[in-house]
Amino acid sequence: MWIEPEEVLLVGALWVSERANPFFILQRRRGHGRGGGLSGLLVGTLDVVLDSSARVAPYRILLQTADSQVYWNIACGSSRKEITEHWDWLESNLLQTISIFDNDEDVITFVKGKISGIIAEEKRLKQGEEQEEDSGKFREAELKMRRLFGMPEEEKLVNYYSCSYWKGRVPRQGWVYLSINHLCFYSFLLGKEVTLVIPWMEVTQLEKNATLVFPESIRVSTRHTEHYFSMFLNINDTFKLMEQLANIAMRQLLDNEAFAADRSLPKPCKTLKNVSTLKRDFDARAKNERYRAMFRLTQDERLDGHTDCTLWTPFAKMHIVGQLFISNNYICFSSREEDLCQLIIPLREVSIVEKADSSSVLPCPVSISTKNKMTFLFANLKDREFLVQRISDFLQRTPDSSWFDTSPPSLIGAQSLLQLFHQNSPEDLGPKAEKMKEEAWNIHFSEFGRGVCMYRTSRTRELVLNGIPECLRGELWLLFSGAQNELATHPGYYGDLVEQAMGMCSLATDEIERDLHRSMPEHRAFQNETGIAALRRVLTAYAHRNPGIGYCQAMNIVTSVLLLYCTEEQAFWLLVALCERMLPDYYNTRVVGALVDQGVFEDLTRSSLPQLYEHMQELGVISTISLSWFLTLFLSVMPFDSAVLLVDCFFYEGIKVIFQVALTVLLDNMDALLSSSDEGEAMTVLGRYLDNVVNKQTVAPPIPHLHAVLTSGDEPPPEIDIFDLIKSSYEKFGSLSSDVIEQMRFKQRLKVIQSLEDTAKRSVVRAMMTESAFSIEELEELYCLFKSKHMTSCYWGSSSSAAERHDPSLPYLEQYRIDPVQFSQLFSALAPWVCGGHTTTLSSRLFRLLDQNQDQLVNFKEFITGLSGMYHGDMTEKLKLLYKLHLPPGNSSLVAQHNINRDDTLVLDSESSFLSDLDTFQQQEVAPGCLTFFHLCAVTEVKDYRYYLRMWAKEKEPKKETIKDLPRMNQEQFIEFCKTLYNMFSEDPSEQELYHAIATVASLLLRIGEVGKKFGNGGKMQETTSQTLPISAEQEEEPDEGTSGEALLCQALADAQLEPAVLQTSDEENKDDTESSYSVVSSGSLLCEDIAHDTVLIGAEQRQGSTLDVDWSITFEQVLASLLTEPVLVEYFERKMDIQAKMATCKAQRVVERQVSSPSEQELMHHST
Q1: Residue 319: what are its φ and ψ, rounded to 5°?
Q2: Could you tell me the end-to-end alpha-carbon distance of the chain, in angstroms, rounded to an integer?
């Protein structure tokens, strides 16, 4: 490719000149192509360390003049063909022209101008494509990654960085490649190659640290090893991207959400150098998540852009510096100083957006007016024209707010339960305090606005910490949680869900019914059917909306509190905000979010209260107490009137206030906890403390909890004012920020999800220990290999989606499943029966045998069942499995349908006979009091229906299969059976003896089948023989038929050995016109399907002189008895197989780290040319 001319001072240091003329030199880089020696090896190492393979092509063309020592690089090429084309063009088009120039400066100026013109023309032609595609350097790096690590095209590179990988005490300089599913590292130093591949799903810890040994490094931990990477140019950017990729992998393990590039994510107008489209998408995704968390917006909100500006605040009469955020449905503002001011303006509320007059005091202002007569003035906007146009575009797509109010009002739950069951209270401290709070909030509304567009300031927080009055609690909970926006934009949604879920039964509805009467039974609102019915409707509607969560214990407690202050529809949307945004993953089947925050709480305790943490860990208390605290927001462990104030703070501040209060509770009880000798004593201390956290501004007496009732002391414990507790938590732990919590959550999420995966593995291994003879270690290794194959097919396979393959709601044994392709790969790598080219056929047969539900997927239990039979079964079990592999599947053939029809006929006949007997009995005239023995028997037979039920149940019970239950094998299946055995013996030390033995056994079985045919079909054979053959020829028939069968067998074995075979033919075989139909040939229950779908048939090739005998068959007992006559075969099948070597080989294919003492990178570069 042509490049902008640049000066080159060192011409021969790392390059070899191959062509030259008076003005141009074509050079090849040392270490590339032929030759090289030590200098080539050094250059190859330098290329990897400095990424020269990406920036410096192996060929270049230099411009030179006779009088100058300065050279100009004007072209480069990755292959000899490319650079030769450029060289030929220079010689044809420029060489004669520049030879007539007198001045060298003119030559250089002319050539540089010509090259620049060519480059400009190429850019103009490719300008449209380059804006959408990644830069050339990045595409080259992606190809290099796939080539080095054997990745398919489905594996997308996100970004790559230069760094050092610490192998022991030695840093290896190279490049780390971060793809969607893997972290890869490559280094090539002085002939030593280091390759590292770590799937993100195996990462258990990811942290950035700085030590004396590893300065400013990133540690990536898996279950077995730790890897250190350092010397990044931008370690923060690298670490953030690693966090995002690991988070996506954990999400895949949790609920199948595989990553897909979101097309609606904003893209820069210009292509950034060396940044992939995926990297830009990840950056935009991270900004979106932060934006939504900051303003409590819904998951479908996409940030369009943000800019610095100032906001005029009428309450403070000043301009506040901050950032303006624009998304598809909202305009938001956040001050630079935390908690100074925050503003959310839904576009559905905007009426006018206009440019105001600029002045020196108010440069570039924009005025935004809402429908409730509020006006917001933003100034100091850099690109005001574009901003106004962008907002106008979004406004045109926003439905008018009148559209949201067209649905009829809901008739269910129009009032909160507290309004329905409000009790008149005496005029004392309670009502006065409530009225004072109401007055304070009314003043706040008049000054800062009311509703979604309210200014949220430090004054707002103060009012929330002092407690929200009951009459405003529902409104402000909706506002601070963001649920008000969903309520306004989804009219009638809740009513529709209630109707759809009505009458539906599921596991979730059963659990809901069980917990309904356990939800705040002490409160009057839930002591009657009105409150219970409202709670049932809200929980059932949410379970119907989000079946992935359905219902989880503790949801009933939280929802019952929401219903006290909100209508049903409002409570529903608050529950949505809690479960899906504010407490993510808290209420799924494994309460992962609560376990993550439990781990965060332990880390906070370790850093804030180290002495107490050590003692609590010894007692095992933290994990016990914190789960209930977080799941119910203290509602289940604290008096209701006190806990509801924490819920007020939670909806405004988020989860940080729960952490603050929990740490304060431990701090206040530190001395008592340190003196506790066991877990029970510590639990009692905390329980009594929380029971005595009171709200002195309430009228109703606190309802004591179980701890206070069961524990008694000489002195009652002191009361703790909830307001003092909240104030103390802000004073002592108020520095805790949401960003710190999110960082700690990420660390714990890796640990928790990987711990859950380990628990699943242990459960599977325990379940399979009784069903297979593999050891615990072998089962664990097999589980890891099986899971890896499953996950690989999820993110690389296209035959079925990940949701179909991985369902965390299934039992552990059935969560991971593989299809026939992955099964064949594992079978080839692990099975002891490797049959060369016949392995794939054998694998497909075993897959169909194990796939009992015929969903084209095999789970781990089925996989181990088949593998265990091959490794640990005795000779009979191994032969039984091998025998069954050559019989068609038993429930999908025409014969099976025929048998079903025949059975149906028999059942109908018996039923009609039974009914006719019953009718006859009923029609007989019997004198009163006179019953014959026949009548008694008939009555008994008619009434004893339990007998038939018992018989039916007994038939349905799974019966242990014996060798007598196996169907007979016909001649065609037998030939395939022999072919498989023949292939199994290749490369065995006793190969020749085994071949001779199987030939002897096969010949014996062929004759056994002939004898059995005569005895089984003697009458039919007699008749056929008398019609077609003379009696004297009957004795000659058997050798001919045997010869025909042996000819078929010889041909099959010859085919398996890929050698030509000579078939013996006879006139009898050519004249054989026996009926050819695949059917049941014995009185057994062999169910044949179309054999073309199951096996590779020898006889289907219409060989001359060989025909299959459809009346020929043998039993498994005959096969077993014949094989027992050959000691070498007995020794082969009784031989103990070791799977360890197979598993080691299979793991080597998923290589984690390897060192190769060969310059493979140089070879790869050479082959790429």
Answers
A1: -90, 130
A2: 15
Instruction: Give all strands (DSSP E) within 843-997, no chain letters.
Output: 858-859, 969-970
CA dihedral 308, 309, 313, 317 (to 10 degrees): 120
**Cα(307)–Cα(364) distance, integer angstroms:** 13
Name every residue whose Cβ is closer than 8 Å to that of residue 339 and which is 6 or more positions away in sequence: 457, 458, 461
Cβ neighbours, 10 Å, residue 682: 24
Q: Two tokens at 564?
A: 């006290």
Which residues, 6 or more positions from 569, have their beta carbon under 8 angstroms from its beta carbon? Answer: 410, 413, 487, 494, 495
> 543 CB contacts (<8 Å, ≥6 apart)?
501, 506, 508, 509, 512, 549, 550, 551
Q: Is the pLDDT of residue 1078 over 70?
A: no
Which token pair is 258? 């595989």
Query: Which amino acid makes up residue 815?
Result: Q
Helix (H) or strand (E) holding 221: strand 217-221
Q: Please, what is the average pLDDT of the chain? A: 77
Q: Which residues pair with 197 in a beta bridge?
A: 184
Phi, psi of 1065 (to 5 degrees): -115, 160
Instruction: Give strand pairing partners of 160.
Output: 177
Burial class (CB in 10 A: 0-12, 13-18, 19+), 1120: middle
pTM for this prediction = 0.74
In this structure, the dihedral spanned by the alpha carbons of residues 303, 307, 313 and 319, taken in order and rounded to 10 degrees, is: 170
Q: Are 491 and 407 in contact (CB under 8 A)?
A: yes
Q: Tell me how far apart the alpha carbons of residues 399 and 450 are, in angstroms, rounded to a whole number.
A: 22
Q: Which two tokens stand for residue 789?
A: 């194959």
CB distance 492 to 458 below 8 Å: no
Residue 177: Cβ within 10 Å count:
25
Which tens digit of pLDDT belongs to each residue from 228-255?
998 787 888 899 999 999 998 888 887 6
Q: What is the DSSP letter of 699?
A: S
Cα separation, 589 vs 548, in Å, equals 8
Question: Measured between alpha carbons, how far is 229 from 173 in angstroms, rounded to an integer?
Answer: 10
**Helix (H), strand (E) counts: the chain:** 48, 26
d(C-alpha 846, C-alpha 254), whole Å = 31
d(CA 233, CA 795): 31
Kindly report, residue by residue over 408-453, the tens digit of the pLDDT.
444 455 678 887 876 444 444 456 788 899 999 999 999 999 999 9
Q: Which of 101, 71, 61 is nearest to 9 (CA)?
A: 71
CB 3 within 8 A of CB 73: yes
| CA dist list (Å): 350 to 30, 329, 332 | 67, 10, 12
Q: How far apart are CA 470 and CA 467, in angstroms?
A: 9
Q: Which helix (H) or strand (E) holds 1016?
A: helix 991-1016
- Name the burial class of residue 1115, with classes exposed (0-12), middle (13-18) and buried (19+) by CB atoms within 10 angstroms of its CB: buried
Task: Give the Cα separation of 56 and 44 in Å (integer).
Answer: 12
